[in-house]
Protein backbone atom coordinates (compact mmCIF):
# COMPACT_ATOMS: atom_id res chain seq x y z
CA UNK A 1 0.00 0.00 0.00
CA UNK A 2 1.48 3.32 -1.11
CA UNK A 3 -0.69 6.11 0.22
CA UNK A 4 1.79 8.92 -0.45
CA UNK A 5 2.40 7.95 -4.06
CA UNK A 6 -1.25 7.13 -4.69
CA UNK A 7 -2.26 10.52 -3.31
CA UNK A 8 0.28 12.39 -5.44
CA UNK A 9 -0.82 10.52 -8.56
CA UNK A 10 -4.54 11.02 -7.89
CA UNK A 11 -4.19 14.73 -7.17
CA UNK A 12 -1.86 15.26 -10.15
CA UNK A 13 -4.22 13.47 -12.55
CA UNK A 14 -7.27 15.29 -11.16
CA UNK A 15 -5.44 18.55 -11.86
CA UNK A 16 -4.70 17.36 -15.41
CA UNK A 17 -0.95 17.65 -14.93
CA UNK A 18 1.60 15.22 -16.36
CA UNK A 19 4.56 13.96 -14.36
CA UNK A 20 6.84 16.09 -16.55
CA UNK A 21 4.75 19.22 -15.94
CA UNK A 22 4.81 18.61 -12.19
CA UNK A 23 8.56 18.05 -12.38
CA UNK A 24 9.05 21.33 -14.26
CA UNK A 25 6.84 23.25 -11.82
CA UNK A 26 8.19 21.74 -8.60
CA UNK A 27 11.87 21.25 -9.34
CA UNK A 28 11.52 17.57 -8.42
CA UNK A 29 12.77 15.27 -11.15
CA UNK A 30 10.28 13.35 -13.26
CA UNK A 31 12.11 10.16 -12.26
CA UNK A 32 11.58 10.90 -8.56
CA UNK A 33 7.91 11.71 -9.08
CA UNK A 34 7.55 8.41 -10.92
CA UNK A 35 9.33 6.53 -8.11
CA UNK A 36 7.06 8.17 -5.52
CA UNK A 37 3.89 7.37 -7.45
CA UNK A 38 4.96 3.77 -8.07
CA UNK A 39 5.87 3.16 -4.43
CA UNK A 40 9.57 2.75 -5.15
CA UNK A 41 10.39 5.65 -2.83
CA UNK A 42 8.33 6.05 0.32
CA UNK A 43 10.31 8.49 2.46
CA UNK A 44 11.04 11.63 0.45
CA UNK A 45 12.57 14.69 2.04
CA UNK A 46 10.07 17.15 3.46
CA UNK A 47 11.09 19.85 0.98
CA UNK A 48 10.11 17.46 -1.83
CA UNK A 49 6.65 16.96 -0.34
CA UNK A 50 6.27 20.70 0.27
CA UNK A 51 7.23 21.52 -3.31
CA UNK A 52 4.91 18.91 -4.80
CA UNK A 53 1.99 19.94 -2.57
CA UNK A 54 2.54 23.62 -3.24
CA UNK A 55 2.65 23.14 -7.00
CA UNK A 56 -0.44 20.93 -6.96
CA UNK A 57 -2.25 23.56 -4.90
CA UNK A 58 -2.99 21.27 -1.96
CA UNK A 59 -1.88 20.99 1.66
CA UNK A 60 0.92 18.73 2.82
CA UNK A 61 -1.70 16.87 4.86
CA UNK A 62 -3.66 16.09 1.71
CA UNK A 63 -0.55 14.65 0.06
CA UNK A 64 0.29 12.54 3.12
CA UNK A 65 -3.17 11.53 4.37
CA UNK A 66 -5.17 11.82 1.15
CA UNK A 67 -7.77 14.10 2.65
CA UNK A 68 -8.24 17.78 3.15
CA UNK A 69 -7.81 18.70 6.76
CA UNK A 70 -7.81 21.92 8.65
CA UNK A 71 -4.75 22.74 10.70
CA UNK A 72 -6.41 21.85 13.99
CA UNK A 73 -7.49 18.41 12.77
CA UNK A 74 -4.00 17.73 11.50
CA UNK A 75 -2.43 18.79 14.80
CA UNK A 76 -4.91 16.70 16.77
CA UNK A 77 -4.16 13.66 14.62
CA UNK A 78 -0.40 14.19 14.91
CA UNK A 79 -0.67 14.64 18.69
CA UNK A 80 -2.50 11.33 19.09
CA UNK A 81 0.35 9.53 17.32
CA UNK A 82 2.90 10.70 19.90
CA UNK A 83 3.80 8.78 23.07
CA UNK A 84 1.55 9.61 26.04
CA UNK A 85 4.28 11.51 27.92
CA UNK A 86 4.92 13.73 24.90
CA UNK A 87 1.19 14.35 24.50
CA UNK A 88 0.97 15.54 28.11
CA UNK A 89 4.01 17.79 27.72
CA UNK A 90 2.54 19.42 24.63
CA UNK A 91 -0.84 19.90 26.31
CA UNK A 92 0.88 21.63 29.25
CA UNK A 93 2.85 23.88 26.88
CA UNK A 94 -0.35 24.84 25.06
CA UNK A 95 -2.09 25.66 28.36
CA UNK A 96 0.85 27.84 29.44
CA UNK A 97 0.87 29.61 26.07
CA UNK A 98 -2.88 30.29 26.29
CA UNK A 99 -2.53 31.66 29.83
CA UNK A 100 0.37 33.89 28.76
CA UNK A 101 -1.60 35.12 25.77
CA UNK A 102 -4.64 35.91 27.92
CA UNK A 103 -2.43 37.68 30.45
CA UNK A 104 -0.91 39.86 27.72
CA UNK A 105 -4.39 40.78 26.46
CA UNK A 106 -5.46 41.78 29.99
CA UNK A 107 -2.35 43.93 30.41
CA UNK A 108 -3.12 45.84 27.22
CA UNK A 109 -6.63 46.58 28.52
CA UNK A 110 -5.31 48.16 31.73
Largest sheet: none
The secondary-structure class comes to mainly alpha
- Domain count: the total is 2
Helix percentage range = over 70%
Keywords: DNA-binding
Domain HTH cro/C1-type: 8-63
Protein name: XRE family transcriptional regulator
GO molecular function: DNA binding; DNA-binding transcription factor activity
List strands and helices in order, with pairings.
Blueprint: H1 3-14, H2 19-26, H3 30-37, H4 46-56, H5 60-65, H6 71-80, H7 84-109
Helix pairs in contact: 1-3, 2-4
Task: Characterise this structure.
The protein has 110 residues and is an all-alpha fold. The protein folds into 2 domains: 3-65, lambda repressor-like DNA-binding domains (434 Repressor (Amino-terminal Domain)); 71-109. The protein has 7 helices and no strands. This is XRE family transcriptional regulator. Pfam families: HTH_3. Residues 8-63 form the HTH cro/C1-type domain.
